[in-house]
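Thread: "does anyone have the structure for this chain?"

Original post by V.I.:
We have the sequence but no experimental structure in hand. Need at least a predicted one for the grant figures.
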Amino acid sequence: MTAPPCAARPGDCRYGTAPELVLDTGNHHMPQVEIWRCTACGHGVTRPAMADVSPLYAGRESDDYLARDSGWIQSLKRIATRRLARRLIAFAPAPPRRIADFGTGNGMLARALADAAGPDATVHALDFFDDPPGPLDPVRYASFAAAAPLHGTMDLVTCFHVLEHDDDSAAMLARVLAFVRPGGTLVIEVPNVDCVWNPWFGKACANWYAPFHRVHFTRASLRALLVRQGLEIVAEQDICGPTFALSLAQWLAVRPNGLLFALALGLRPLQWVAERLTRRPSALRIIARRPG
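Reply from O.Q.:
Generated one for you, tokens below.
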């Protein structure tokens, strides 16, 4: 394999002679992929490379858009997302008046940010598509292609489980960072390749999510990527995410459903304790600030 740049040790990539995993994806764009890990820092990459990942998301048919969720699951997620939005707004040094959610998906986080920020704030939802995923009022939707006028104007930019979806992490981060004004705040969250559940579920662990996850971050590689862009790291957080429920579905070879969601919800205290004790969470979050 031609070694891609290693996020934590650029110029010193050590990917070895064999992949860590070979995964059958069931996706016609890329039915089989290999996961390679750098032996220097653990950072992972999915191969073969994809110069353009947009075909994977055509029609918003991938699981990223959560269209499968039933009504009661959506209600619980809305409650959790509203709580999250209030915490995200508190990361900014002053109440943010211009907010963007980069890679908004189904728009749930953008709507929650608009509710939490209040009527004096303007929230923009940004994604691949020309049209929004559904009604987003009062959120303003824009495609990436049409969003250039917003560059350098945002007090707060959120980017949740997006950075891992592109082969070129540095270029993707630069696209996100373009929206953050000097002195503005960026909140990035990605899956953790060193999640405690990876050995338990193996190929079925949802954190692999092939072929959609193109890179697989460690603490070191995510931190190094942001620092190389000149960002000031304000805080790092371990996040207990939905890996358990999605991995159970993969392991059982069934679609995610309400029963598995309820089971994972009941086991969530166990998941949280295991991730806390091992310091191997299912996701990593970094709050960073662009120098003024």
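V.I.: this helps a lot. DSSP finds eight helices and eleven strands in the chain.
O.Q.: and The helical segments are 71-91, 108-117, 169-177, 197-201, 219-228, 243-252, 258-266, 268-278.
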